[in-house]
Amino acid sequence: MREKIVAGNWKMNTSIEEGRQLVEDILAGMDRVPEGVSLIVAPPFTHLFLIAHLLGNRKNPGLAAQNCADKKSGAYTGEVSASMLASVPCGYVILGHSERREYYAETDQTLLEKIKLALSEGLRPIFCVGEVLEDRESNMHFQVISSQLREVLCQLGPEDFKKIIVAYEPVWAIGTGNTATSDQAQEMHAFIRAFLAETFGDLAESTPILYGGSCKPSNARDIFSQPDVDGGLIGGASLKADDFLAIAGSFA
Ligand code: PGA
Question: Could you tell me the distance, in angstroms and rounded to a whole number, from the CA of residue 127 to the centre of ligand 1?
Answer without folding.
Answer: 14
